Amino acid sequence: MAEADRFTRDTAVDRMGPGRFRGRIDPGWSVVDGAAPNGGYVMALAARAMRADIPHPDPVTLTAHFLAPPVPGPVDVEVEVVRSGRRHTTVAARLLQEGREQARLLGAFGDLAAAEGPDRVDLAPPPLPPIEDCLDVTTAAVERARSGELPSFPIQERFDHRQPAELASWAIGRPTGRGEMGGYLRFADAGDDAAIDTLGLLVVADCLAPAVFNTAPGLTSWVPTIELTVQVRARPCPGYLAAWFTTQAMTRGYLEEDGTIWDAGGTLVALSRQLALAPRS
Prior knowledge:
Order of helices and strands: HEEHEEEEEHHEHEHEEEEE
Number of domains: 1
CATH architecture: Beta Barrel
Mean pLDDT: 93
Number of strands: 14
Helix content: 10-25%
Largest sheet: 14 strands, antiparallel
Structural class: mainly beta
Low-confidence stretches: none
Strand content: 35-45%
Number of helices: 6
CATH topology: Porin
Oligomer: single chain
CATH superfamily: Acyl-CoA thioesterase, double hotdog domain
């Protein structure tokens, strides 16, 4: 049997009893070394437990409210099947550490391989140049962290990120002035013929630098997520995903970030929206 990829290993859960699972928060998915794990990663770990006993494998929509930042180490997931139907199963979950609830989730799971119905997409794929014209921002970030210029961003090393130079310029103090962030990405340990699955899309929806970082100089500190919703529309084909995120309103310390994710074949595979606290300049 082939060895599981790192994402699959780091979101694995063990059954502890009826509706009870245990996993482990791995520090390699932290936003900054030693800080809280990425919210999308936390959602994916919980979603793996949520789908364990149901016939529907894909999180068609999943919402997480983050109550407190988890820390690396054991984590418990309590799962309740709210309703099971022919097309969807609705599942609720609580994610706990040492008895303290860290996140609460509610989702509808389906089987996107069997989904059928009308199609109409008025959205356009993100305005990105060809991959070969983009920067390898993962390698650049790792090199700058090793030289001491930047802190380490563990989650960035989990992906192969390619971004236009303009969108990555916030990292050297030259933001674009627009609440936009995007680029191409795939798991760092993925081959050319590998596809990110629908649980992986939950992480992709939250793994780029926040779009607010490009709005003005100095807005590059922690952006805590309060609530994140991801809608998954299709299983991606192999290849790089193209992701695009925007923030259009920052009011009284709150902001939204909207995202679209497209696969290498040009299919819209996921949409997201989150509510977060604005960074402190």
